[in-house]
Each structure stands twice: as C-alpha cells, then as structure tokens.
Amino acid sequence: MLLWPLLLLLLLLLLPTLALLMQQRSQDARLSWLAGLQHRVAWGALVWAATWQRWRLEQSTLHVHESQQQALRWCLQGAQRPHCSFTDISTFRNHLPLTKASQTQEEENGEQPLPPTSNQDLGEASLQADGEELAGAIAAGNPGAPLPERAAELREALEQGPRGLALRLWPKLQVVVTLDAGGQAEAVAALGALWCQGLAFFSPAYAASGGVLGLNLQPEQPYGLYLLPPGAPFIELLPVKEGTQEEAASTLLLTEAQQGKEYELVLTDHASLTRCRLGDVVRVVGVYNQCPVVRFIYRLGQTLSVRGEDIGEDLFSEALGRAVGQWPGAKLLDHGCVESSILDSSAGSAPHYEVFVALRGLRNLSEENRDKLDHCLQEASPRYKSLRFWGSVGPARVHLVGQGAFRALRAALAACPSSPFPPAMPRVLRHRHLAQRLQERVVS
Description:
Blueprint lengths: L2 H27 L3 H30 L1 H15 L10 H7 L2 E3 L4 H6 L13 H17 L7 H12 L5 H5 L5 E3 L7 H9 L6 E3 L2 E4 L2 E5 L9 E3 L6 E6 L22 E7 L6 E14 L2 E9 L13 H12 L6 E9 L13 E8 L6 H14 L1 H9 L6 E4 L4 H10 L17 H8 L5
Parallel strand pairs: 1-9, 2-3, 12-13
Antiparallel strand pairs: 4-5, 6-10, 7-8, 8-9, 9-10, 11-12
Helix pairs in contact: 1-2, 6-7, 10-11, 11-12
C-alpha cells in the first residue's frame, strides 16, 4: 500500500526536471499541439495524484492511533485467518507473541553450495570487458536503431576510468536515486567516490525484508532520515536497552516513541499474523505531526563476541572507519568480519577477529596499519580492551581482499530463492562457506 504514495511522491520531486526536459524538447523538435496537450494532461494528473496522496499522509500522521487501527484491520483481513477475532491493537499484542525470522539470509545460504567463482575479477577490469560489449551492441543497434556516435562516446568515457563515469555519460545528471536498506553506508560512500563522483544521492524510502517501512519527505535534510508512517504494514517499536540486545516487556506504538531512544522494528503485514522482529534498530531523531522520524543505527545479531565482549555492528564500523582514516590514501569500499573459530584460525593463539577489507588507494597493508584497528577497538570498547590486556582475546587480524570479493559474496547471498529485497549484506559472517569466499580473495 505504501508503494503508490512513494512512487507518486518521487514523481512529484521529479516533475521540475521533467518539465525542463519537455520544454527543451518542445523548443528543439516543435512538438505538435496534441503532444503538448498530452504533456499538460499528464502533468496535471501527476500533480493532482501527488497532492491527494500528500493530503492522505498528512491526515494519517495527524491521527496516528486511528490510522494504525485501520492498518491492523487491513493486515488481519489479508491474512486469511477467520478464526482470529482480534478487535483492537491491545488484544492483538496480547494474543500474538513476538517472533524472529526462523532463518536469516546468511544462514540459508551457509548450508547451500555456492556458485563457482569466475576466474575474472568482478570490478574495474570487468567494466572494460562489459562496457566494450555494450558499446558494440549500441553501435550495431541491438536493440533499437544503430547509434555509432553514442557508442563512441561510451568507449571514450570508459577509457578515462571509472571515477566520475556517470557524469561523463550523462553530463546533465544531477541526482542518483537509491533505496536505503540500512547498513549500506559504505556502499553509498564508495559509489559516490567512484562511479558517481560529483553527484548528489537521494533515497526516497527506507526498506527492510518486510517491504517499504519509511518515507523520506525532506530530501534537503541529511541522508538517512525517514518518517515511519502509520499505514500498512503495521509497525511496532520494541525498546532496546542501552548496552544490551535484550528487549523490553512490550512493544510501543508510533505515538509512544521517545526522541533519542533506540527501538527494534516489529512488522506485521497482510500475508501473515506474525509479529516479526526485523532486527533493524533505529533511533528516533524527530517528529512529523504525531509520527516518529528515525535513522537506521544497526542490526541486531551482527555482533562479534569471542569472550562475551559483544562488539556491535555500529561500534565495529566506527572503529574500523577511524583506523582506515589513519591509513594514508586509503578509502574503505567494503568490509566483513568473522570470529576466528569459524575459520579455525585460533590454533596456537587466543580467539580473535578476522577482518576482511576492500580498499581503494592502498594495495598493501603494513603491520603498523593492521595494528591500528585493534587500537581503535580498544578505545571504543573498555570490555575488549580489558580482554586484550589479560590476553583472553588476541589482536584483530586484518586482510586486504582483491577486486570482486564482496561482489561475489553478494551474488552468493542473492542467489537464494528466499532472498529479501533489497538483499541484506551481513557484516559478521556466521558460516565458513561464506567467510571462505572472502578468504580466497586475500591479497595482503
């Protein structure tokens, strides 16, 4: 149900650009009166639809309790469970317990054979092999009419390398539209520093495995702020205790969220009557009418713990970012980590973390650079520092992987038929098969 408002809001944001393009086209090609009429009718329909959807959103966020009641009734009707006689939110929450996903995407793929790895690196090199094939198809007119001039422009742009390629191909491009799934900050930063250098990024929605959950109504605000609307799917908020992953006794509704607090998202959709804990933790950073505006923080279950230290995804990523910042010329493109017991790499040493990083601007890691991550982790976690002092935990081992390592890992994760969209990229790998996919690509 949220997809239509989302698409209409996105179209509304794109209307000024569309108008400019249509105006230029009318000046150049002197569009016929009929084409101009069609343009005006389409413009008017889009403006009307977007205005109507924005009005509906305003009304629902002003009357949140009633809107969530309606969303729950819609979910109950679609679940095809006639024996359930829930009449209100309180009864629904009292009779249905919270559940977790029976299997994560990584767990499902961990027990399955992974597709074979190509001998060709999947990275900048493959761009030159695929780009040439694309240029040949454009020149030959497959599909469509032959465009030899455009093919020549593509070849020229590819010869200059991947950095800033998007603007070379489309000089009037102004914004890159993405879909935020949480935990993708590194991928967005890498895209902005390489292919889409010089371009602004805009994410109209926040999505999890259950569907679209949040809307970005203020694109001028910092990246990653989303309104949690009261419509379907039905959303609850589970308070997360500070410093732990233990949940509170009960969930809260959207109007009960407190600014500055962190909550795990709980989702109920029309396909089932399960109150599913998604594992996505958000922090309330503002309010829109009566609905919370949130920022994704981390995912539960993405923790490292070899001696009970519980290094969370957010804390580890922050420490890794500080360490990479001390590596001259290095830019972090992606990372993954695994506890040493999974790779059987603790023989003769204390348990530790095995960390795999993809970098730009650095081809080799010195021992001094590797040690900086362990120092940053000790600064970030007193518990980890204490365990390192007593020798209960060994120093983190950092490995540099070559081109295509994380792309191959993502392909393996996405190959599962039940893979959610967008696919979730685990930062902490729990299965040896997946960890070995990165281990095979270590270059330093």
